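Predict structure. Chain length: 296.
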Amino acid sequence: MEIRQLQYLVAVADTGTFTAAAAREHVAQPAISAQIATLEREVGQRLFTRTARGAEPTEAGRELLTHARDILDRLTRAREAMSELAGVLRGRVTVGTMRGAPLGRLADVLGRFRRSHQGVDLTVREGESAALLDQLTAGAVDLALVGLWGRAPAGITTSTVLDSSVGAVVAATDPWAARRQVTLAQAADRPIVTLVPGTGVRTAFDAACRQQGLSPRVGFEVGTVGAAIELARAGLGVAVVPADPSLTVGPDGRALAIVRPVVRSRLALAWAADTVTRGRPAARALLAAVRPDRTA
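Prediction complete.
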């Protein structure tokens, strides 16, 4: 069993496909497949099940993944400890970001961090907020920009970047175009255009509907706020999006507030609670750069 095989095992599990894993590891896809096949022969177990959505770990795969992550983490910590003794920051830091989220100051911090620590392999990946939070817990991601509704999962620390209410957008020709606000129940009773599950706005909207005993009629799920607004302006439904004054709905759209109840969603930086004290040196350094007032 080789370190490279364990790295490929984790890459396939994290990305969900052999092709994406190959891109992440900067190798050809057949190399990933061959190494996983060799590993499967060595352990005598199927490690992944191929599905229409990609590759999902089997029970044996999940068990081996737990050990693989621990081995790779220990190896990384050993290398980083040696580099730290030499006064050079090295290692790998992975930052996750919710699809379509505005990076804002985070992009500037990442740029400065890369220039200051060229020995650190800095990776940024997009994903759904729920998946990114799971990856933080598993140690696959060191820092993430996620959408939240309610409290963060146990063991995760957050710092709010943006706290906004959830609103609606309709076409200028829609019967609601002259309104300023609608209730959550009224919005849920119309065809809904909203973001994919796992995003902050969608999570907040779905949770609020459940609390009110509502079953929204979701007709379109898209990856960006802009796409949701475009579909709403075309008359295909009511877009449920952040109630952000900076959003441009254009002359063909009308923005409405959603009330009774007001639904709030947060955009937040998140990290494992023990990163400050037990995290890898490179991850601690990035967190200190992002949160200089909170992190030593």
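Summary: The radius of gyration is 22 Å.
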